[in-house]
Amino acid sequence: MKRCIFVNYIMNVTHKIDSLETEQSNNVRKKDATYKHIIKYTGFFGGIQLLTILVSVIRNKLAVMLLSKAGIGLTALYNNMTGFLSSTSNMGVSFSSIKHISEVFEEGDEQLVAHHVEVVRTWSVWTALLGILLTVLFSPIISWFAFDDFNHIVPICCLSPIVAFMAVTGGELAILKAVRRLHRVALISIMGALFTLLLTIPFYYFLGINGIIPALNISTLAVMAVHLSFSLPIFPWHVSLLSRKHFQSGWSLIRLGIPYIMAGIINTLSVMGITFFINRVGSINDVGLYSMGFTLVITYAGIVFTAVDTDYFPRLSALQNDRERMCLTINRQVKVCVLLMAPFLVLFILCMPLVIRLLYTEEFLPITGMAVCASIHMFFKAMTLPVAYTALAKADSLVYLLMEVVYDIVLVVLVVLGYLLWGILGTGIALALAGIFDYFLIHIVYGRRYGYRPESSALPFFVSQFMCVLLALCLGLQDEWLSKLVFGLPLTIVSVWLSLRVLQKEMLMSGCRWENLLNKCSYFRKKDKHK
Fold this sequence. Notes:
This protein is mostly helical. The protein has two domains: 30-258, no CATH class; 282-518, no CATH class. Helix content is 85%, strand content 0%. α2 (35-89) packs antiparallel against α6 and α13 (323-350) runs parallel beside α18. The longest helix has 55 residues, at 35-89. Residues 24-31 and 520-531 have low confidence and may be disordered.
C-alpha cells in the first residue's frame, strides 16, 4: 500500500532536519553562526512548529465550538493540574537524562548507552507511579483550591493516569533527543497533535463537558504510544523496578534536575494560582477567556522562538567560557528575534479581531484588548529570551531558579491586580508589564554576573521597532477598521522595511548576499528535484 501524501511529506521534512542538525553541529565547532545561519534555522524549525500549531488551532477551534467558554475554562484548569502534578512527581528525569545519555552516546559505547536508557525508563516508571499516588492524595486539597468545594475529588483522581502517561512520554522523548534522533522527535510532535485532534473532538461532540477527562486520558495515552513506537525499535523495553543499582544510578539524574524542576513547579503553580484566582473571584468563563488569550499571544506568537532551543542553545553552550564570543552570539540572536517578531506583532495586533474569529469564535472577542496589550510582552521577550539562556548554558541552575521565582511572583501579583482593577483587559496589561520587568531583571543580573553587554549600535533599531509596535497597539484598541487600514498598512510597511534594512546591512557586513540566502533556503527543494 502507498503511504499517504502527508506522511511522505512529513518523512521528507524530518530527514531534512537530520541533515540540518549535522551541518549545525559542524558550524558550532568551526565558527560563530552568521545571520544567514540564524535566519535559516529559525525559519526551518519554525516551519516544523507551525505545522503542529496549525493542527492545534483546528483542535482549539472545534473545542471552542463544542464546549463554549465554560468548557474551555474547565479544560484549562485540568491541564494546569496535570502539568503541576507531572512537574512535581517527575523530579526532572526528562530534563537531566538528555545530558546524561548524550555524554555516553558521544563516547560510542552502545552497551553503556543501553544501560543508561534502562535506568531512565526505570525512573520514568517510578515517577509515573509517584504521580498517580500524589494525584490521589492531593485531590481533596486541589478540589478545594480550584473549585471551593470537595465535589471534584473523583474527577481529579481520574486525571492520575494522565500524569503517569506524561512521565513515561517525557522519558522516551529525552532518550530520542539524547541519541540525536531529531527527525523522529519532529515527526512525533506532529503525529501527537494529529492524534490529539482526532481523539478528543469525538468526546467533546458526544459528551460535551463530561467528555473532557476521557478525552484528555485517551489523547495522552495515544501520545505516549506514539513516542514508544518510535523509541522501542531503537532500544527495546527493559526496566528493573527493584534493582538497587538502577536506583543508585538514577540519583545523579535527580540531583541535576531538581533546580530546573523546581523552577517548572513554581511556574506551574503561578499559572494554577492565576486560574484558580480568576475562577474564584470571577467565573469559569473568565478562566476560559484568559486561557485562550494567553495561548493566542504567548504560544502562537512564540513560533519565532522555536529555533532558540533547537539551534541557538547548543551554540551558546559551546561558547560558555568565551565571554566575547558569547556576547556576540547573544546579540545576533536578539537582533534576529526582534527583526522577525516586530513586523509580525504589528500585523498581528492590527488584525486581532479577525485572528480571534478565525482561531476561535465571536464569543471570544472580549479578549481582543487583552491580547493586544499582552503583545508588548512578546516584543520584550524577543530581547530577553536569548539572554536568559545564559544561565542554562553555564549550568548555573541556582541563578536560573532564582530568576524564575522572582519573575513568577511578580507575574502573579501583576495579573491579580490587573484583573481586580480592569478585568480580562487588566491581565493583558499585567502580562505586558511582566515582560518589561523581566527584560530589566535579566539584563541587570546577567550583565553583572556573566559580563553580558547588549549591542549599543542596535539600540536605534530596537527603539524604532518598539515605537511601531506601540503605535499598532494604540490602533488595535480602536474599534474602527478604517483607521486601522489607513494608518496600519503604512505602519506595517515601515516595520518590515526597518527589519529588511537591518538584515541587509548585517548580511553585507558578514559577507553574505541576498541571493546566497535565497539559494540556501531553496537547497532542500532542489535536492528533492534531483532525486
